[in-house]
Amino acid sequence: MGLLLSALTGSFMSAQRFGLIPEASDLGPGFPAEVSGGQPRPVDRLQALSQVDLNDLRELVFPYPDDPQDVYSLTTTGGSGFVDQATGELLQFQPRSTGSVVQQWIMRLHTGEGLWWLGLILGVAALAVPALSVTGTIIWWQRRRLSLQTQDNAAAAEADVIVLVGSEAGATWGFARALKAGLTKAGYRVHCAEMNALAHSYPRAGMLFVLTSTYGDGDAPGSAGRFMDRLRDFRAGSALKYAVLGFGDRQFPNFCRFALEVDEALAGKGLSRIQPVELIDRCSAARFSEWGDRLGTAIGAQLSLSHDPVPPRTFRLELAGRVDYGLAVQAPTSILRFRLADAGQRWRCWFSRSGRNSLPVFEAGDLLGILPPQEGQDARFYSLASSASDGVFEICVRKQPGGLCSGYLHGLKPGDSIEAFIRQNPGFRPATGTVPVILIGAGAGIGPLTGFIRKNTARNPMYLYWGGRSANSDFLYQPELGHYLEDRRLTGLSTAFSRSDERAYVQDRLRQDQTALQQMIDTGAQVLVCGGRDMAAGVKQVFEEILRPLRMDVDQLRAEGRYLEDVY
User: Fold this and answer.
1) pTM for this one?
2) How confident is the model at residue 148 (pLDDT cuts 50, 70, 90)?
3) 448 sits in which H/E element
4) What's the pLDDT tens digit per position in 152-185?
5) Bridge-partner residues for 462, per DSSP?
6) 355: helix, strand or coil
7) Does residue 464 share a domain with residue 368?
C-alpha cells in the first residue's frame, strides 16, 4: 500500500511538472493599499496572529525594521494575507483555492510531511524496494536459467514436437528435459519453452505436450500465468494433437487443477488428445516413466523416460517417545514424538531458521515427509500435530496392513532415528479471529486437529467432532483433550465409536448437531476435515444436507476458504 500511494501521488506530481495536468496557482492577495503606519506593537499583542493555531501556520514573514508602512505576511493552511504591525488587524486575507488544497495534500501524502505515521509507512515501504528488487531478480534468473537449460532446442517454426512447461520452483523443467531428450533420440525435432511463450501457431508441429504444475489454490504457476490469454489467439492446425501431464500433491485440495483446466481449454480449441490427461503425485519418477511408456506406444516411438528429481534436504530425527493405542480393536495407532537427533542440528536450527543448514519453520497441519529405509521408495507424508515452538515433531500413525512406512514407524523404539523433511501445507490452517472453527476427523486424522487446539491460546470458539473404534482402546489424545476442555482452548467435544454399543460414526454426531452447525456456518464458521477419503466423503454428504436450508453448498464454502480437507 505504501508503494502504491507513492506511485500514484508521484505520478500526479510528475504530470503537473510536465504540463499534463495544470498546476494550481495561488497568486495570493495584493499588497494592502492602506497601512495604519502607527507605532509597531510587540508580536505577542497582535490579535490576528494570536488567533492562528500553530498547527495551521505555514509561513510568517516579519516586516522590515524601522519601516512603519511594512506588514507581516501570513500564510496558513487556509490561505494567506497581511497583518498590520500597529493595529494587529488582518488585511486582505485570501482563502486557498480547491486546487491548491488538493496539491498540498498530494505533496503531504507523497512525503509524509506533517503525518508521522504515514512517514513511517512510506519509509518502511521504501526500505522494502531493494529487497524486492534483489529477490525478484534472483527468482527471474533462476527461472530463466532453468528454461535455458534445454540443449539443441529446435526453432518453434521448424519443430515437429512442441513441449511447453509450467513451473513455479523449477521442478517440472527436469521432467520436460527428459521428455525432450527422449523425443529427440526418437528422431523428432523438439522445441521446448515455457507456457507463457505459446506462439500464435506452430506450422510444422504435429504434437504438443504440456507439462505443468499447479500453484497455490489451483492457480497457474509462474511460467504459465499468461498461457490462457495467449491460447485465445492460438491457431491450431488440423493435424496438431496434444497431451497434458500434470504435477502436484494429492494432500492439497485442488490437486493438479490447473493441468485439468489446460486440458479442457486445449480440447475446446478443437485439438485431439494423444492420450488422456495424466496427473503425477509428488514428482513420482516411476509414474513419469510409466507415462512415457504409454506415450511411446501411442505415438509409435520407443520412449524410455527417466528423471529423478533432486531429493529434498533431509534431517535426522530421533524417537523421543510414543503412546500406543488400538491393539484391542485391530487398529494399532501410535502417537510418535521425534526430536532432532544431534546437538549440531539443534544448534543450527536455533541459530538460523533461514540458513542453508537450518531446519524450516513448521506449524501444525504441515507435513512430515519420511523416507522408508528401502531404497528407491517414495516419501510418505504424515500431518504434524506440533509446531516448531513445541520443540518436537509429533505425528499420529495408524499401522496399515502391509504398509511399508507405517510398519516401519510402528517398529521404532525410543532412541531409533529416521530421515525426514518438512513440506509446508498452508492450505490447511484454521482461520484467525473469533469466528468458530469446526474440526472433524476420524482415526489418526485427529493429529493436526489436536495441534490446532493446542495453539488456540486466544480461546476462540473451537469444536471437535471425532470418530474412533472404541473409547477404551483407541480414544486418541484423551487426556490432552480433557485438559483443553478445562482451560477452554477446546469449546466442545463430540465423539463417536463404531465398536461401542451405540455403533455411531462421526457423521451421526454432525446430524445430531445440525441446528447448531447451521447457526455457526451462518455466522462465518470454518470447517476443517482430516482423515481417510471415505470418511471425508461421508462428512461432505452430511454437510450438503446441513447447508441446503441455508441455500449454500460445500463448493461455495470451499471457494470462500471455509471448508478445508486434508485427506488420504
Assistant:
1) 0.56
2) low
3) helix 446-454
4) 788 999 999 999 999 876 789 989 999 999 999 9
5) 437
6) coil
7) no
pLDDT higher than 60, residue 548: yes
Does the residue 143 lie in any domain? Answer: no
The C-alpha atoms of residue 392 and residue 213 are separated, in whole angstroms, by 32
Domain end residue (candidates: 367, 390, 423): 423
> Which cell numbers in the block locate residue 445?
486424522
Residues 6+ apart with CB under 8 A from 563: 526, 527, 529, 543, 554, 557
Does the structure show a pLDDT above 50 at 507? yes
| CA-based radius of gyration for the chain | 34
Mean predicted lDDT score pLDDT of the chain: 87
Distance (Å, rounded) from C-alpha 563 to C-alpha 544? 12
Domain finish residue from 253, 269, 299: 299
* Residue that the C-alpha cell 507513492 belongs to: 6
Question: How far, in Å, CA of 149 to CA of 145, rounded?
Answer: 6
Nearest Cα residue to 441 out of 509, 392, 362: 509
pLDDT at 346 over 70: no
- Judged by phi (left if over 0) then psi (alpha if -120 to 50, else beta), residue 401 lies in beta
**Strand 272-273 vs strand 241-248: parallel, antiparallel, or unpaired?**
parallel
Q: In degrees, to the nearest 5, what angle opens at C-alpha 386 toward C-alphas 440 and 319?
A: 120
More confident residue, 212 or 77: 212
For residue 318, how far is the Cα from the chain centroid?
A: 31
Q: pLDDT for 432-469, tens place per residue?
A: 889 999 999 999 999 999 999 999 999 999 999 999 99
85 & 169 share domain: no
Within a domain: 13: yes
231 plus 194 within the same structural domain: yes
Domain of 182, in residue numbers: 149-299
- Give the chain's end-to-end CA distance (angstroms, integer): 40
Q: pLDDT tens for residues 29-55?
A: 888 888 888 889 898 889 889 988 888
Q: CA neighbours within 13 Å on the CB side: how many for 164?
A: 28
Position 352 pLDDT exceeds 60: no
355 contacts 347 by C-beta, under 8 angstroms: no
- Is residue 549 a contact partner of residue 473, using CB atoms and an 8 Å limit? no
The continuous run of DSSP H or E covering 535 comes out as helix 533-547
Q: Could you tell me if 285 and 162 lie in one domain?
A: yes
Number of structural domains found in the chain: 4
